[in-house]
Amino acid sequence: MLERLGEAEWLVPATGEMRVPGRIFADCGTIEQLKADIEEGKEWNALRQVCEVACLPGIVTASLALPDVHPGYGFPIGGVAAFDVHSGVVVVGGVGFDINCGVRTLRTPLTEESILDYKEKLAKQLFRDIPAGLGSEGKLRLSVEEIDQVLIKGARFVVEQGYGLEEDLEYIEEGGQLAGADPGTVSPVAKQRQFRQVGTLGSGNHYLEVQLVEEVFDQKAAGIYGLRKGEVVISIHTGSRALGHQIGQDYLKEMAKATKKYNLPVRARELACAPIKSEEGERYLAAVACGGNCAFANRQVITHLVRSSFARVCGIPPASVCTVYDIGHNNVKLERHCVDGEERTLLVHRKGATRAFGPGREESPVSYRSVGHPMLVGGTMGTASYIMRGTEVGMKKTFGSGVHGAGRALSRRKAAKRYWGEDVRSSLKDRGIILRAHNLRGIAEEAPGAYKDIEQVVKAATDAGINRPVVRLRPLIVIKG
Description:
CATH class: Alpha Beta
Helix content: 25-40%
Low-confidence stretches: none
């Protein structure tokens, strides 16, 4: 069923109702696991999902899966698919429920040695200042009118309210403001759930980490991004919180009706979709833009809180904590790509996959264009994270996409049965990592052993030529919901 094309590239030939082949970028271990899931008859498996996505109308070139691939709802996590704007569809399962979940990385003028004496104090201050956990609420209280402004203007709105710096916006994907957002496409229930959640971390796999730039692999790109070995950075991983989840719930129902209305062939409930140019398709895209802007605003407010914490504990000016980049990994956007020598506008879905535009694209900040914008790749709280960048090969083979993290190896339920939260905390402490969390079960669910080996994921992306590592980040302090 699978044909090997290269060191870390595999083809699933188009058969049956598949309109295009599947293309998987992964190491041999991941491929063997995907095969085993099929052979064991597991209904919940990523390889089958790659094939089901390949059956959707208007899909272009291939249904893609990246090295951190694992099962998701509809699309696999680590799944990418691009659709022709005239004959294609927009798919709820191609974005998921945490719209524009993503990562922002900040750099500081500090070193590990310079924070050694007050590392514990810094952890306590961050844990106190950053609202986290299931249903957590922030200090920002918004009216209905202000929520609508967040949905339209994203990070720009909260910067105008004093949460952050104008220069932050230059280093956020799309300037922190996705075009086409229409608050009228978002239900009152979704807005109600967000009134007090802007500026909150949430729970699950979301985190805030203080990290050390442990290794530099690409000196040129690291220099352009302003990163140096031994530097302390901060990474914030969160998304659109309850509002994004409610948008997903609302439109899964609406798209199910659209699927029947337009007689669209889908192989799974979560692949409910509508033609891109239809009323339902346009409404969903406008709602996704709202959710995306909410996520950008959320990470912007948390950035402001992080600056305050560091200023209070470390005595550094807030403005010395600078945004390296902010990028999402659950999105759907119109983009220009070259297909068979022709430049076309495509609707690109990335589910647990980050945009990874290589050199020369105008979507990158001006100062980054010679190497392409950073990809922010989360690992686990006990191993490492990476900053990577896109390549010309990746632009051609993956529509400029890249890995977003380690990818789960165990479900949350299995992880909670295998690990004990306090044991995980103690193990991290023995390795010099301070963990502050609101929930012991959540710690168990997010145990490092519940995830794939980030080093193997990065190596597979590198071997495939689609992404390139810039720096490796080692965790020092971890804040979890």
